[in-house]
Amino acid sequence: MDARAITEEALGRDPGPLTPVHSRSHEVHVGADVVVKLIAADGHTRLDREIALAPHLPPGITAPLLASGRRHDIRYACYSRVTGSPPRMDLHTEREALGLARQAIERLNALHSWTPPEPARQVLAEVLDHGGFTGRDALVKAIENTAGHIPQRVLDGLQEIASRAPLHARSTVPVHADCYWDNWLANGTELTGLLDFEWARFGDPLDDWFFLARFSGPHMHAVLALIADETKMPLRTLQAECEVREASHLIADLPFDTPRVLDLLERLVAGLWHEQ
Hints:
Radius of gyration: 20 Å
CATH superfamily of the largest domain: Aminoglycoside phosphotransferase (APH), C-terminal lobe
CATH topology of the largest domain: Aminoglycoside 3'-phosphotransferase, Chain: A, domain 2
Helix content: 40-55%
Strand content: 15-25%
């Protein structure tokens, strides 16, 4: 994919040097003031979803969309480059990590309280196979399908987690649904943006609180306590809700990365979310 030619044509100007960066789902190139995402036209359609949402999202929450479209067999989106880089939570002190988490909670609260216009509402309402928690019955069925593929002690632990799961997950507010720390940008201890709205949908704020806490590295429980305090949610309730969400995501990932997922499932059923 000729990122430079596509970007120059889309913007009508020379974008300057573009450097490829790692991405799990697209080809991504970064310039001095622009970021371009590319994917084959016959690839997944999540970039189209992000492009459709971009003009309507609350101001200041993510990178502005400059141009998008197709060039031959390539779909592309060009964004203004937001300053900063993904925070490495393992390199931050607890105080710094909590400062970043508090800013993230503020931005996510703005997203959760956003009233999307009809075009964005239609996109957010589309049904996605997101691998997250949708309700107790679906989780129980997914756990039953793992029988014979995971140790019995892990199966028993997952069934115990499922027994505490709510009957249904809410799907009433806009959520990012993938807001782990690699999708945030920060300048030092100042949060500057939230990227990659490809999985955004109507959901439950807990879908985002799970990602924010779980990927906070050594500060997971401190961030979890902060979320409980900021949202006025009982910590035990938050722990249980995050637990069922991790179970759902891990079971969905089990066929694709079995050894890693089995290790994470062992930690989950051993009480990861309830450690202090």
